[in-house]
Predict the structure.
Amino acid sequence: MRLALAAILSIAAGVSASTPAPALAPAPFNGLWRSCETYRGAEICEYTMLAQQGGRICGVQSYFATNAYYEQRFVGTVKANVAHIEKICGDPGSETDTYCAGRAPDDAEKVGWGASDEKLFLCNGRLLAASGEETADCTGVKRQSGLPRVRASSGDGPQPEERAWLASCAAGSE
């Protein structure tokens, strides 16, 4: 009996070892999108780093406008090929008026998550955004529009604190 059980277990182990693991669902929004240009002799960069876990997406972004950098964190859902940002916080500007908890000045009026109607989508390997009723599709989009995907390295994109938040958010804790 022991010999038969050992034979069955070894055959089962051989079958499971030769059976490939099921493929993980693709997460096309995972990654870093970044673009730089020269402004008044200085290199100005903007980026969006995303972590997609199934239908959930978390992101951090930084952009330059009106002579200042603005940084945000956001959470949303992916439906088909569009990421719908549902809540956002960060430096108040065009994207949000709500500071992130733990990062607000003492006199901040709004702290926590604010609502968002922004969408992200991919065209020609580049990340683009649409707001409100704007259509998130590639029709009429110029080939060089949006942010190109880049290979993430420690010096590009978000600082370690933002990368840690992104990993925590992707794991379900924002």
About this structure: Residues 138 and 170 are 27 Å apart (CA to CA). The first helix runs from residue 2 to 18. The first strand starts at residue 31 and ends at 39. Residues 1-19 have pLDDT under 50 and may be disordered.
